[in-house]
Amino acid sequence: MWPNLKCKEVLSMKKITSMMLAGIALAIVSVSAFAQSWPVRPIRLIVPFAPGGGVDLTGRVIAPKLSEALGQTVIVENRGGAGGLIGVDLGAKASPDGYTVVIGTIGNIAIAPHLQSKMPYDPQKDLVPISQLANALNVMVINPSVKATTVKEFIALAKKEGSNISFGSSGSGATDHLAGEVFNTLAGLKMTHIPYKGGAPAMIDLVGGQVQVIFATVSTAISSIQGGKVRALGMTGNQRYESLSEVPTIAEAGLIGFDVNGWYGLYAPAGIPKDIITRLNAEVVKILAMPDVKTRLLDAGIIATSSSPEAFAAYAQAETKRWAKVVKDANIKTD
Q1: What is the mean pLDDT of residues 175-197?
Q2: Of residues 170 and 272, which shows the higher confidence score?
Q3: pLDDT tens figures, 298-314
């Protein structure tokens, strides 16, 4: 086997090889044993936004259910800032031992890499997907003074008005901003973008007539819709919202190909044992199928949506590629 080596040297190399193999086997057994005993202490769930929003609500609805399923407390930790980048970065750099997970969103996973000159983390390399959690619904709403009752009528009017039509958003690079840019591209419009520091200020100016349209989250828009202060023309995603069942999707209303979903998903730091990912995924899928969980989220315009780690990874990668093109074509810049 080793023709140029003496017998003692051969035996020595065999011994070294055997020790290396034994070490590898021991490491595998140790990781497996660790995963089987997990969890033995509380788990941190990082929400990369301030309390009160849709991501925070989703985390707080899931956390107690996950605590019950795992037999250990799941503690929600809000670490907001920079559109979620700070919190997600904290999660990405945590120890991959199964005791830190983080909620990522379309913004800080699929869109930010194309807007930031330097990302603090690589969503594809530094994070491992566990499951999609939800689709946060957005709705296209206009000021009632705008003489349109359908998406097609709005497009026809906007083509006549040109850049005199403006759309507001919760900030440059946010989902509602990107939705407006996709609408511009598919409809052949040149609406002017007006960024705000949040969805609520944008809604206030829509009601006041300072902007003509926004693509707001349902939670932000629902009271103004029901109060007749704004008019809903279409849902931005690929499904209707039960509480606004008469409002079609924008694609159904005539703008074929329009589909903007503000999704959330659960991630762990890269390097986490596979067995823990499998366990977390199984429990999260069960939780998101619970009627009380689905109802509580749906009341806020959030649709509980689970997936396998592999399916979620493929979806996030496809979304990343898709938004790269949108950002480039629309020449979108952050503030």
Answers
A1: 90
A2: 272
A3: 988 899 999 999 999 99
Cα distances from 278 to residues 155, 266, 288, in angstroms, run 47, 13, 16
Cβ atoms of 238 and 222 within 8 Å: the answer is no
CATH code, 138-236: 3.40.190.10
Non-local (6+) Cβ contacts of 247 within 8 A are 139, 232, 233, 234, 235, 240, 241
DSSP letter at 105 equals E
pLDDT for 203: 92
* Right CATH for 38-135+262-330 from 3.40.50.1100, 2.60.120.200, 3.40.50.720, 3.40.190.150: 3.40.190.150
**212 near 233, Cβ under 8 Å?**
no
DSSP conformation class of 111: I
The pair of structure tokens assigned to 268 is 């762990």
The pTM (predicted TM-score) of the whole model is 0.77
- Entry field: residues in the chain: 335
CB-side neighbour CA atoms (13 Å) of 266: 32
pLDDT band at 1 (very low <50, low <70, confident <90, very high): very low
> pLDDT-derived band of residue 69, with 50, 70 and 90 as boundaries?
very high
Task: Give residues with Cβ within 8 angstroms of 60, minimum separation 6.
Answer: 47, 76
Residues 6+ apart with CB under 8 A from 138: 175, 176, 179, 215, 216, 217, 218, 235, 236, 237, 260, 262
Sign of torsion, CA 264 266 270 275? negative
Q: Is 49 helix (H, G, I), strand (E, B) or coil?
A: coil
Residue in the structure block whose two tokens are 């790269």:
324
Structure confidence by residue, pLDDT tens digits, 223-239? 899 999 999 999 999 88
